[in-house]
Amino acid sequence: MKRWLLCALLCLFTTFSAISPIRAEDNASDRETLGLYYEPHDLEIAVATRSPRPLSHSAENITVITADDIERLNAHTLAEVLNTVAGVQVDLRGAPSIGATFELAGATSRHILVLIDGVTINDQLDNIAFTGQIPVQNIERVEIVKGPASSAWGSALGGVVNVVTKEPQKGSRFGGAAYFSGGERGTRDGRGELSGTMGSLGYYLAGGNLRGDGFRPFNASERSDLYAKLRWDIPENRGTVRLTLNYQKIGVEEGLFTWRDATSRLTNRQLFSTLSLDYALSDRLTLSGTLKGSRLDYNRNESLISTGEPSAFISNDEITVGGATLLTWRQGLHTVTGGVEYDHGKSDTSVSYPAWPDYNSAFSVRNDKWGLFLNDTIVWGPFALTPAVRYDLTSATGDHFSPSIGAAYSLTDKTILRAFAAKGYSLPRLRPEFRTPEKGWSIQGGLETSEIPFLWLRGTWFRSTAEDPTDRTVREGVEVEARTVPLFNTWLTAGYVFTDATSRSTNTEIPGVARDRWDLGLHYDDRTIRGALTGHYAWWNTPGDWGGKYKNFIWDLNLGWRLYRDRTTETEIFFTGHNLFNGRQYPDETFINPSRWFEGGLRITW
Amino acid sequence: MTTRILHILAFLLLWGFPAFAAEVVVVQGERMAPFEAALRGFKATAGVRSVERLVLSEQRGADVVRSVREARPRVVLAIGREALARLKEIREIPVVYVMVATPESTGAASRNVTGVAMNVPAERYLAFARGTLAGRRVGLLFDPARTGALAKEAAQAAERQGVALVSREVRSPRQAMQQLATLRGKVDVLWLLPDPTVVTAETMEAIALFSQENRVPVIAFAAKYLQNGALAAFEVDPADMGRQAGRMARRIMDGAAVEQVPAEAPARTTLRLNKTVARNLGVSPDLREE
């Protein structure tokens, strides 16, 4: 598979690199013109919430990561990308593509909705998305909404990670990229992409294979993925039709669980597809419709360490089909988006224990969900108000009403004040023993400013509650992010998040939630040489018997040298040193973080 | 509780809908930060109560011209080149533009159109080159299809100021680098136009090298090039230009004919310098705009 893929990429590169690109049109677009005056991050403001709006009008605490940022990190998976965002805590558990849990301001994986092209990646059984298994080659942008997003998306009490994939390249029939990296412990990542537009039809294809032997005993992983997008532009620029197919196959050895004398091997296959339409019905009214389907199939095999005998087989097969229709109406001060969403989900699980057949079980759960939502963005001078409501009817957990209201006020051209309040909910694990959803309120207030010369600063205070019949938890804290403007091609980034998470029923701190988190970065990019030294530190305050160790910063170094570049082609070699000082940072001794390791590679774009 | 929330939301949704007949209709290509800043600046000085906004990237195939006409505004604000080009059919409503680098290339030049061009006048660059940097020969690379009009304006300004403009036509970045080499020993200052054929990541490296090797200062049009080896840049502020356009729109709404409100260059520019480059080139670091 890997050899075949590399050969194919090499052949495609050789063929297409000989084809001359089409000359750019003389009438430069606004984006092209402004790109001459500003850095890309000074232009990017729009976010793909249900009602796209510029960040200056967004009351929510939103962070946007672009494809350029991902490239700068030499990242393999979405988890590695999220790990660099202030307020996001990722528990990287070994080789790239090993499943990693993550949290947003104290909200754990189960409360966070992860979407790719509008399709949720969270499984139905546990409501968890494995971001360590999501490739980054096809990602154009990742938008992270920190705080409840239920008024837009339904089950998203802790927030949303929205992955926007790349569009077919315009202005050229053939474009693409090839990427290969290799490192210690058999870590190898080969990827490629092809993209172009012929007339009104555009295509984007990406695929790759990532594998590694892991950094602990029994911790290897391998992932293969394919992604395809076809886009048809409706004549007269009235809209587009898109078809996407997204397939991933992951095999993971999860590690040694000595406390229960077991090892675990996971095989996971995922297929997601969408067919979507965007169409201008009138000058003010736009229709968007999406049909979506997904299939998740995982098998977990556990064996006894002492004897090597199989001890458990768990299999789960999930199918979801659904669709969404949205109407967006722009008039006067308002941008109103309303829509209806439907998902039919079915999950079949079987558990068998060869040594104890009496404990074997099989169960099937289903969940039909209807969601009705309406939101508005009212922009009145420097003031933007964003009221939103959503009503969800679920067959498994009843009905949920999720309102939110936010306001953003541009105090000056460089300072924005934000306030946001929302009610949200999270679907429970759909196992028979867990059928109670969690619900809660969150309020946030913040300020974003670049009034201080050479410095961008953002601060957010938050307080969130989540409750189910057995407990009520409260998470509150502050998040501060800072970035300097580039000076001599060099800039600094810093982030600090304090989260106090307590259970009100026991009046104790919730274990496993990072209490303090620091992110520091020193970056350099002169368009030939680039480098980033980034450090992450988290204090989990976990119980002593977890065996966690987290007194060290984990420092990573990413370097790149663009060997060759002309108008359409670029070649870069890169190098990454992970955990440079061999720091220890893990909340649970079962999942010790990887020690120092190195990798390097080559990236070609054309 | 739920009913109360729904009532509040219903009120919020309905609030503001009477704004059908806006005083000003704003048309912009995309929602981008500099455009938003320009709009905020415009609103600060135009003194209008109601503004309707049409964003082309969100309108898709919609007939924007018809929407503008139906709104019957007193003034249309076009932010960016794409918006101005789309509005060229409108002849009966005053159009004020802002954030447009080359307004004449849009085909929208008409008696009802005025605004603030994004480019700093050539005189200001040349005065700086001649006065402060004592450069009598100014080098210029341009793609006729992209910045031919600006180059023509530069030639006229150079003639007026007694500066020798050594210009080279190029049609690709590779050609730009070749032509750059022919300027060796023939120019005292190199002036960059906002030309995407000439200014690329690849050519900027060659330009920085040319500057260092030949001790030729480079004057750019945006501060982002200071980190690429340019000595100086004249920076314009979108909010400032928006405020300037707002004042022009106010005059029109107060009764002035569009012909009485001629197009303007950015009123305020900021000279930014890279002092390390200045030191390396042996130029006095306390440079001033002439």
From TrEMBL, chain B:
InterPro entries according to UniProt: ABC_transpt-TYRBP-like, Peripla_BP_I
Protein name according to UniProt: ABC transporter substrate-binding protein
UniProt keyword Transcription regulation present: no
Organism: Geobacter pickeringii
Keyword terms, alphabetized: Signal
SUPFAM superfamilies associated with the record: Periplasmic binding protein-like I (SSF53822)
Keyword Repeat: no
Superkingdom of the source species: Bacteria
Signal peptide: 1-21
